[in-house]
Amino acid sequence: MELRHLRYLMAVAECGSVRKAAEKLHVAQPAISRQLQELEVELQVRLFERKAPGMVPTRAASVLITAAQRTFDNLDQVRQQVRRIAGGEEGLIKIGFLEAVSWGGSVPEAIARFRTIRPAVGLQMVVGWSPELVEMVSTGAIDVAFAHVQDPVFEPGIESPLFRQDAMLLAVPTGSPYARQKKLVLRDLHDASFVWFPRSWAEDYHDQMIAACHAAGLVPRIVQYVSGHPSLLSTSLLSFVAAGIGVAFVASSNTDRGLQTVEFCQLHDLQAPLNLRCIYRADADELAKGFVEEAMAVTKLQPQLPRV
């Protein structure tokens, strides 16, 4: 049984004769008769009875016609859905991002904007750390990632435009004297106890901050290294700061967390912006590229100014 058998069956039932069905479908009359005979042989039932009004479906044929109509309705729905997916109006996008950029600002705004514009598109969120997110895009595990990567990703088939730049701030326990200092610079931190992280977690970030400190004549006195999973780097740093163990450098996106036990200080001589890139495959489908386009429209590629 093929779709053409069902189409001819429905046409004859609607028109009441093979001749009229052939005219409607622009098919030779013998072809329709032959297809109906094949269907009767396959099903071992009689499909039509000849009566005064014309050819009338048997009870068995009526059941088959009802099922055939549902089949064609479903096919129409699938056809429309495929077209919507191809046009970027429907489907599923897998988006990876750093936990630190999920609290507020342009990344959540970009996601919310896309959900408003294309509500039929499903979004699956994945939290990870930058090297992991880049690898997931490369392998196709996710479609788009927002990751802190200083330089463009030089990998064939991977696009990594700059999404925004985060300023680097000093996180201190609430009430710290550093928070009350009017113009804080790096050399003012020579007595500070620092909470740091393993270099393997974020080599670019680590080396950039060490170089900036040394250039200003500061050798950070590190009293605690965080542990756990690298995807929670900022959370780990801030938890130690909140506990009063020390101070830490964090991206300005963390000011959106609304913490009561941590304050953020701007360092006036620290020029070490952290690049947040939107990473995706060059051969991504129209849906993923549509998301990237909407996301890039949100940001103006300016440093996130600290709200302190």
Q: What features would you describe in this structure?
A:
The chain is of the alpha/beta class and 308 residues long. It folds into 3 domains: 3-86, Orthogonal Bundle (Arc Repressor Mutant, subunit A), CATH 1.10.10; 91-165 and 274-304, D-Maltodextrin-Binding Protein, domain 2, CATH 3.40.190.10; 168-265, Periplasmic binding protein-like II (D-Maltodextrin-Binding Protein, domain 2). It has 10 helices and 14 strands. The chain has helices at 3-15, 18-25, 29-43, 59-86, 106-117, 130-139, 177-180, 203-215, 233-242, 286-298, and strands at 48-51, 54-57, 91-97, 121-127, 144-148, 158-159, 162-166, 168-173, 193-196, 221-225, 248-251, 262-265, 274-281, 303-304. The strands form 4 sheets. Strands 3, 4, 5, 6, 7, 13 and 14 form a 7-stranded mixed beta sheet that branches. Strands 11-8-12 form a 3-stranded antiparallel beta sheet, covered by helices on one side. α5 (106-117) crosses α10 (286-298). The longest helix is centred in the first third of the chain and has 28 residues, at 59-86. The model is unreliable at 301-308 (pLDDT under 50).
